[in-house]
Design goal:
It is a single chain. The chain is built from 6 helices and no strands. With 105 residues, the protein is mainly α. It has one domain. The protein starts with 7 loop residues before the first helix and ends with a helix.
Length: 105
């Protein structure tokens, strides 16, 4: 499971100067290129969903969302994006419930 976006590791990762360039590059090269969409979709979808939640002055969340939108143009990758999104939502709800119990019991 990936770390929450408010941990120090994620904060450091999001501040990397190259991240915005990488997200833009991947978005550009995946436009209309199914093999690239499949390669990116095979490994990066959970990380992109986490990046979507991140807020930064570099608009990393928006760039991650743009990449996911480009990937969803491929039907096979689109199914993976939807499945991963559901897992992220279920996981986040579970984490919130756990934290609530820990704080209130």
């Amino acid at each position: 499971m990936l770390n929450r976006t408010d941990t120090e590791n994620w904060k450091d990762f999001i501040q990397k100067p190259a991240l915005s360039y990488v997200l833009r590059l991947l978005t550009g090269i995946s436009q209309g290129h199914p093999p690239t969409q499949l390669l990116i979709g095979a490994e990066c979808i959970p990380i992109l969903h986490k990046l979507e939640q991140a807020s930064s002055d570099k608009h990393i969340g928006t760039m991650a969302e743009n990449l996911l939108e480009a990937l969803k143009k491929n039907p096979e990758v689109s199914a993976k994006v939807r499945t991963s999104m559901c897992r992220c939502i279920v996981c986040e709800v579970g984490v919130r419930q756990y934290r609530y119990k820990e704080e209130n019991l």
